[in-house]
Amino acid sequence: MEIHRADPAYRRRSLWLLLAIAAGCALALWQLHGWLQNLQAHIAGADPIEAQRWLRRALTGLALAPVAPLWLWGAGLRRLGRAAAAQGRFPPCDWKTYRDVRVLRDAAAEAWARRSERLGRLAQRAALACGAAALAVWWRLA
């Protein structure tokens, strides 16, 4: 049985990045309540046209927020699938892993390669759907 060895430096970097993202999200959530209260006070005193404009921007921003992460995740999955199919093994030789994993070959590797490419396409279609939803919200609330 062939084993694809983990890269400890990759694991450390990834965990530090994950910790930084979690800390940034925690900070954003901590500030969100105050910002929403200020926004509510501002919109409550504004005329209806300005309130609709703020609502349109907020909903469009919410729809656009997942577009880049979904698109990039999908591109990474598709790249993984193509590399695995080209090499006939999963994971591909040059890919880094968090832990030691068993290398799959032949039909099992091909199945994982197809699955990765399919999920990558699905993620990219979800990104396009979020972009379309943002355009629809922008157009509908115009």
Please characterize this protein's 3D structure.
With 142 residues, the protein is mainly α. Helices cover 77% and strands 6% of the residues. It is built from 4 helices and 4 strands, in the order E-H-H-H-E-E-E-H. It has a two-stranded antiparallel sheet. It has a two-stranded antiparallel ribbon with strand order 2-4. Helix 2 runs antiparallel to helix 4. The longest helix is centred in the first third of the chain and has 37 residues.
H/I helix tally: 4
Radius of gyration: 22 Å
Q: Terminal Cα separation, in Å?
A: 61 Å
- Order of SSEs: EHHHEEEH
**Stretches with pLDDT under 50, minimum 5 residues:** none
Task: Look at the helices and sheets and give the structural class.
Answer: mainly alpha
Strand line-up across the major sheet:
1-3
Mean pLDDT over the full residue set: 94
Helix content: over 70%
**Beta-strand percentage range:** 5-15%
- Summarize the biggest pleated sheet: 2 strands, antiparallel
Shape, principal axes of CA atoms: elongated
How would you classify the quaternary structure?
A: single chain
Number of strands: 4
